[in-house]
Design a protein that fits this description.
Layout lengths: L2 E2 L2 E2 L11 H10 L4 E7 L17 H21 L5 E9 L4 H12 L4 E5 L2 E2 L2 E2 L4 H9 L5 H19 L3 E2 L20 H17 L2 E5 L1 H4 L9 H9 L3 E5 L2 E2 L8 H11 L3 E7 L14 E7 H5 L7
Parallel strand pairs: 1-3, 2-11, 3-4, 4-5, 5-8, 8-9, 9-10
Antiparallel strand pairs: 6-7, 12-13
Helix pairs in contact: 5-6, 8-9
């Protein structure tokens, strides 16, 4: 029953490891029943990461995505009797032209989902490494409070433009901040923007992923923090599980700690994507073949996955 809606592989992501096939096999071996393949989208040359230009051009990134899609569909057929695989992408919001790239992919490929995410503020990566984060922060007044505000404003622009079915690592901005585990309520101005975004997501029916990658990076809670989950729950918002794996070692990693966050937040049930059926209705007109299925946390805990 455990599932993940966010994953990457070294075959199609430069900062990950293992082939896509190996990642899928790891999910099967861990006892996952639903696993979503969501490689990164192509980017313009201006948004390449350091040294990326040594290996890629914008054209080769598009070719890489096309190769990914074909391999993902192949694996979906190969493992159809062992695991439910859904194919999509992580749609990073960097600048207005990101909208064009994402719309182009949605028109060219029949996908089951996409994740809406923000990895850049002022078009500078905020999760690459601390020096690059500090460079993004220095564009404002060189404080975490200011860049947090700018992050949630960028996130709102992404949400308004895309209405992503799943919102990825909602509070990623805290990764390289001076105090990544502090309460968001420390800064009322930031908290207000955060709540504004949660209300928007809840209003259009978006799902927040409970993303375990923060835990392997030294933080004490999943993305988003428990206090954020409590607010989204009060708004009637829905949650799903993601490991944001970047290779075999990350598949299902720290899900026990995510479960602890779920309980502390008072979340009674989570949801996962499922094929449309008599009981599962399409969640979005853009993705007519899939919908959300709800499972109680109590039932989730009974799965053999937790014994592995």
């Amino acid at each position: 029953m455990p599932f993940s809606h966010h994953s990457h592989s070294g075959q199609f992501c430069g900062h990950a490891t293992n082939t896509l096939d190996e990642v899928v096999q790891a999910a099967i071996n861990k006892g996952m029943t639903t696993f979503c393949l969501t490689e990164h989208i192509p980017r313009e040359r201006i948004d390449f990461y350091p040294r990326e230009e040594e290996e890629h051009t914008p054209e080769t990134l598009y070719k890489l995505f096309d190769d990914y899609y074909r391999e993902a569909r192949r694996l979906q057929a190969v493992y159809k009797d062992q695991i439910v695989l859904f194919i999509g992408f992580e749609g990073e919001w960097i600048r207005p032209s990101s909208l064009t790239i994402i719309h182009d992919l949605l028109s060219r490929y029949e996908v089951d989902l996409f994740l809406g995410s923000v990895h850049h503020v002022h078009t500078i990566p905020i999760d690459y490494d601390p020096p690059v984060y500090h460079r993004a922060r220095d564009v404002g007044n060189a404080t975490d409070e200011r860049i947090f505000q700018d992050y949630f404003d960028a996130q709102l622009a992404m949400l308004e433009a895309l209405h992503p079915p799943i919102v990825a690592h909602f509070d990623l901005i805290r990764l390289f901040s001076d105090q990544p585990n502090q309460t968001w309520k420390t800064w009322p101005s930031v908290w207000a923007k955060l709540l504004r975004n949660l209300r928007f997501i809840a209003d259009y029916g978006g799902v927040l992923e409970l993303n375990s990658s923060s835990l392997r990076k030294g933080m004490t809670e999943a993305y988003p923090q428990v206090e954020v989950c409590q607010e989204f729950k009060a708004l009637g918002g829905r949650f799903t599980l993601s490991d944001d794996s970047h290779g075999v070692p990350h598949v299902g990693l720290n899900y026990d700690k995510v479960l602890d966050c779920v309980k502390r937040a008072g979340i009674a049930d989570v949801c996962h994507l499922a094929p449309v059926s008599d009981t599962v209705k399409p969640h979005d007109s853009r993705f007519p073949n899939v919908g959300w299925q709800t499972v109680s946390v109590a039932d989730l805990e009974k799965h053999p996955f937790w014994a592995n």
